[in-house]
Design brief:
Shape of chain B: globular
Distance between the termini of chain A: 45 Å
Number of strands of chain B: 25
Radius of gyration of chain B: 24 Å
Structural class of chain B: alpha/beta
Shape of chain A: globular
CATH architecture of the largest domain in chain B: 3-Layer(bba) Sandwich
Strand order of the largest sheet of chain B: 3-2-1-7-19
Structural class of chain A: mainly alpha
Strand content of chain B: 15-25%
Helix content of chain B: 10-25%
Number of helices of chain A: 25
Order of helices and strands of chain A: HHHHHHHHHHHHHHHHHEEHHHHEHHHEH
Oligomer: heterodimer
Number of domains of chain B: 3
Radius of gyration of chain A: 25 Å
Largest sheet of chain A: 2 strands, antiparallel
Largest sheet of chain B: 5 strands, parallel
Number of strands of chain A: 4
Helix content of chain A: 55-70%
Largest interface: A-B, 70 and 75 residues
CATH superfamily of the largest domain in chain B: FAD/NAD(P)-binding domain
Distance between the termini of chain B: 30 Å
Number of helices of chain B: 11
Strand order of the largest sheet of chain A: 1-2
Chain lengths: 536, 454
């Protein structure tokens, strides 16, 4: 098809020269990048604090000036013109180059922080990390780590690109509020509050634990690690609060909010990974695969990651509990029973609710199989008690396997590095165990769904194309079927780009049983053909 | 039994899908346009770079084999209705037991001088899109003739590529034979706000030849000459039945069919844009070239082709469009000019880009139609009110039931009620705001809960 071929041309076939203001914006952002590059190359900058502040401010200002000019020079509306013509956003040459750049950054960050300038063994920082020292000293009175650099740049990306998103969707209050929310949670809860807390209380910095209250297990996969639990339990009021709040989030807050609003309350309103995907990743959302095989791979991979993360957590907790209740209230034996009991209870609850709501058999088979595997694993761990082995793999080995392949490679290198190639939600869709749990709940018992508006769908495909999770929304919309999919993060873009007002995100327990009834937008209902019914 | 379907647009493909649901008949869909079904209404988004061609195909390519629907890419030249055979330009002979004609439309041309020149084209088919694409390189200005839905789409397409557009509209206001005056004026303002050179009350007189057989300008009824390298002819479409004229098939403007979509020839049916109903339902046109009618006819035709007679019942009129950034929805009867006995309540947002209109019977108060600009309303709720002849005051007090705008969007129903109170001296209160729960409860009281009669 010739028409799609033009998308491979290097430039927009109808370039409109950037105007002066847009060029100014790009220039400011380029200057900011130049400062970071010079620091990375160990060029000594006279006053690092000033240069760092200049770099961060220039980037933010440049991105905002550019996008303000781009979107506010036209009336508010859906502005996706030329997305498939630009090789940056259609998976073409610039997309690949950007992807390689991002991937490279993540590899340095995770595996070669010294290249970024992290001082080894107490040595002073140099290069890029050193550039961030003044900022880190200001916030918490200690030099920067590579994670501080990462956190600052991550937050900057969400704020700058969040600003762009706000300009682009300024006519849509759902999008505006949602974006302000992810910007707020990232800047406040993920970055400034934890850093300032460490600054105010140096004990907290030496006895580190995660102070981002919204970062929940199993996304925060080392929440139950011995060192982490110990640090929280010995971390004074704040530590105990974080431990209690973490448990409350996992077992009460999250299930309740997911029941009421779907997984979107977390994935597209609060979560940091989601926040980056929704802001910095927005130009790439259309690149997610929509094929049935992509969906099949997604279901296997994400649920296997979930299984693995639960198994790993159980094994890790088990490995540090004692036989007698000396340090922890739990012993191995009681933990085994509690874990098995919780899992069995979950199975029972699922079965009961499914019965009530008339659920799907095939889903149940998979869920019960998954729970069965977990319970068997717990019992086996108990059986091998005394040794730190589960199924002959040491718990620590399982942990480091998970940390390396899932925590670093999958969520970081692939998850963000491949934005320009596979879309912005690769990690959320294929890998995030948190998304998997919320998804199962959303699919089976939540009041959230996307409803369709009668027969108004024209099968145009904007909804499916711009779904970052690769859901073929049109498949449902053109049949007038409500959409309840485990993976839907409720970003609301399908509803925004629909040219005929067909899709709406809603929460309601009304008609929850028949909400996914197939083919509602049919014209001829069989019960309107009495003469034919007699025939059949 | 072998059912051949001529045309793979929404009518033909919907028929094929429903035939497969209802039967095991062999199905062959013949089209010269493209190998696979695509959404015709989405062609504009391919040109604008919102989607690729593969994104506007509603079913993935494996769907057809899986559902045993044979696709044949060929151009049907002649049908021998007696021998039940279709002959294609490529030399195929397709023998059928039953035939569905779903050949769609062609762009109308009204004998303008120069209409055959290079660079002059309508927008209906995939080939039209390719033609626009080829002619867009280096294009300095496009002129568009005809102020309907396709004209404004074409204007938006060129505009997205930064190609200046002059838009000639014969009427005094954009699409004012369909839209009531206020909405028509709103869209006119919006077209100009986008930077389109909109010329109202202006007709095309002539397309100027550049000497090499290409269009280089148009001359308007006001005698003005506008230089342009492309002329879009979008003054409507008409049934694509050229090759069926002068056969035994009875045609007028379209293929004539009865309410079971049967033509005058046994075992030959027709559906979609190419159809002209012998007896349209009261208040409806004999030819309705819209996506939704095509889809409903396709489904109806499938029942009839499978020997399960079902009359074509398009239900309560509905349609939708998007004029640049303003979405449009209509349910029921909303005439452009209000006949005697009708009353209307029109609310417009001060920003001038949103409006809500209700049309009702002056004497009885029965609500007859809804017209929405920039606000989304639920089809099923509006239909139920219209079907059940709900009273305007009853509807107004529960107007929130119909609201389908996204969460957190401002709700204007209270302002609509207030406007009614001001105009009529009543003291109504809005009693129902937006919400799925109440809407579902309302719809559940329907006579036939599962048949939404779309």
């Amino acid at each position: 098809m010739k028409i799609s071929n033009i998308s491979f041309s290097l430039a927009n076939p109808h370039p409109r020269a950037l105007d002066g203001v847009q060029k100014l914006g790009l220039g400011l952002a380029a200057l900011a990048m130049l400062i970071l590059l010079l620091a990375f190359l160990h060029v000594s900058l006279p006053s690092q604090g000033v240069f760092l502040a200049a770099s961060l401010a220039l980037f933010l200002a440049g991105a905002l000036v550019f996008s303000w000019r781009t979107y506010l020079s036209r009336p508010a509306g859906i502005r996706n013109d030329g997305i498939w013509f630009s090789t940056l956003t259609n998976g073409g040459l610039w997309g690949w180059m950007f992807g390689i750049f991002l991937t490279g950054f993540y590899i340095l960050l995770y595996f070669f922080p010294a290249v970024l300038g992290l001082g080894a063994g107490g040595a002073a920082n140099s290069g890029l990390v050193a550039l961030f020292d003044p900022f880190s000293l200001l916030l918490k009175g200690q030099p920067a780590s590579q994670w501080f650099v990462y956190g600052a740049l991550y937050t900057l990306a969400i704020l700058a690109m969040g600003g762009r998103f706000l300009f682009k969707y300024r006519h849509n209050r759902y999008q505006v509020l949602r974006t302000l929310s992810v910007m707020f949670f990232q800047a406040g809860f993920a970055f400034f509050i934890p850093e300032l807390m460490e600054g105010l209380n140096s004990d907290l910095a030496t006895r580190w634990f995660d102070k981002d209250v919204k970062n929940m297990w199993p996304l925060d996969y080392d929440f139950f690690d011995k060192w982490h639990v110990d640090n929280m339990l010995n971390g004074g009021f704040i530590g105990l609060f974080m431990f209690a709040f973490g448990l409350l989030m996992i077992f009460v807050v999250s299930p309740y909010l997911t029941y009421r609003y779907g997984k979107r309350w977390y994935c597209s309103w609060v979560c940091g990974c989601g926040g980056l995907a929704e802001t910095a990743g927005d130009p790439f959302r259309q690149l997610s695969g929509k094929s049935l095989s992509a969906w099949r791979i997604e279901r296997w991979v994400i649920h296997l990651v979930l299984l693995l993360s639960v198994l790993m957590t159980i094994a890790v907790v088990y490995s540090y509990l004692g036989v007698n209740p000396e340090k922890y209230y739990l012993t191995r034996r009681s933990f085994t029973w509690i874990a098995a009991g919780l899992l069995a209870g979950l199975g029972l609850l699922t079965a009961l609710l499914q019965r009530k709501f008339g659920g799907l058999r095939r889903n149940m088979v998979y869920i019960m199989a998954g729970l069965g595997v977990l319970i068997a694993a717990v019992v086996l761990i108990n059986h091998y008690s005394g040794e730190k082995h589960i199924l002959f793999i040491p718990a620590s080995g399982l942990k480091s396997f998970y940390g390396f392949y899932i925590g670093a490679i999958f969520s970081g290198v692939v998850g963000v590095g491949f934005y320009p190639l596979l879309g912005s939600r690769v990690w959320c869709r294929f890998g995030c165990p948190m998304a998997a749990i919320l998804g199962i709940q959303q699919r089976l018992f939540s009041r959230f769904r996307i409803t369709t508006n009668g027969g108004q769908c024209i099968s145009c495909g904007n909804c499916s194309t711009y779904c970052e999770m690769g859901i073929d929304v049109r498949w449902y919309a053109q049949r007038g079927q409500d959409i309840v999919r485990a993976s839907c993060v409720g970003c609301g873009i399908c509803s925004a780009v629909c040219p005929r007002g067909v899709l709406r995100l809603e929460n309601s327990s009304a008609d929850v049983q028949e909400r996914t009834e197939a083919v509602r937008a049919i014209h001829i209902a069989e019960n309107r053909l009495p003469e034919i019914r007699a025939e059949v | 039994m072998h059912i051949a379907i001529l045309g793979n647009g929404v009518a033909g493909i919907t028929a094929a899908r429903f035939i497969r649901k209802l039967s095991d008949h062999r199905i062959t869909v013949i089209s010269a346009e493209t190998e696979h079904f695509f959404s015709r209404t989405a062609l504009m988004y391919v040109y604008m770079g919102h989607m690729r061609y593969e994104d506007i195909k509603p079913y993935d390519d494996g769907f057809w084999r899986k559902n045993r629907i044979d696709l044949l890419r060929a151009f049907a030249e002649r049908i021998d209705f007696g021998a039940k055979a279709i002959y294609t330009r490529e030399g195929h002979t397709i023998r059928y037991d039953k035939l569905l004609l779903a050949t769609g439309s062609v762009s109308s041309r009204f004998g303008w001088p120069g209409q055959e020149l290079e660079g002059v084209r309508g927008l209906y088919s995939y080939q039209d899109l390719e033609y626009m694409e080829r002619n867009s390189q280096g294009l300095q200005r496009a002129a568009i003739v005809g102020g309907g839905l396709i004209g404004i789409e074409m204007a938006e397409m060129f505009h997205s590529r930064h190609i200046p557009v002059t838009f000639l509209v014969r009427e005094d206001n954009y699409w004012d034979m369909v839209l009531p005056p206020e909405e028509s004026a709103m869209i006119g303002r919006h077209i100009r706000e986008q930077g389109i050179d909109l010329r109202l009350s202006t007709e095309l007189k002539e397309i100027v030849d550049d000497g090499a057989g290409r269009a280089c300008a148009v001359i308007t009824s006001r005698g003005e000459r506008i230089g342009c390298g492309f002329v879009g002819l979008t003054a409507g479409v008409q049934p694509n039945i050229g090759f069926l004229k002068h056969t035994e098939l009875e045609t007028d403007r379209g293929i004539l069919v009865d309410e079971y979509l049967r033509t005058n020839i046994p075992d030959v049916f027709a559906a979609g844009d190419c159809v002209e109903l012998r007896q349209p339902r009261p208040g409806r046109r004999a030819i309705e070239a819209v996506w939704y009618a095509g889809r409903m006819m396709g489904e109806t035709a499938a029942y009839n082709l499978c020997g399960r007679p079902a009359a074509y019942d398009p239900g309560i009129w509905f349609n939708s469009a998007k004029f640049f950034d303003i979405e449009y929805q209509v349910y029921g009867h909303v005439p452009a000019r209000l006949p005697g006995g009708f009353a209307t309540l029109y609310w417009e947002h001060p920003g001038g880009r949103k409006s809500i209109r209700l049309v009702y019977d002056k004497a009885q108060g029965h609500v007859l139609g809804f017209n929405l600009m920039g606000v989304r309303y639920r089809q099923e709720v509006c239909e139920k009110w219209i079907r059940e002849q709900a009273h305007i005051e009853e509807v107004l007090q529960h107007l929130g039931l119909a609201n389908f705008d996204p969460e957190f969007f401002r709700q204007y129903e209270a302002e609509v009620v207030e406007l009614y109170n001001r105009q009529s001296g009543s003291g109504l209160q809005l009693r129902q705001r937006r919400g799925l729960k109440a809407a579902v409860r309302f719809l559940k009281n329907a006579v036939q809960p599962k048949a939404y009669n779309l």
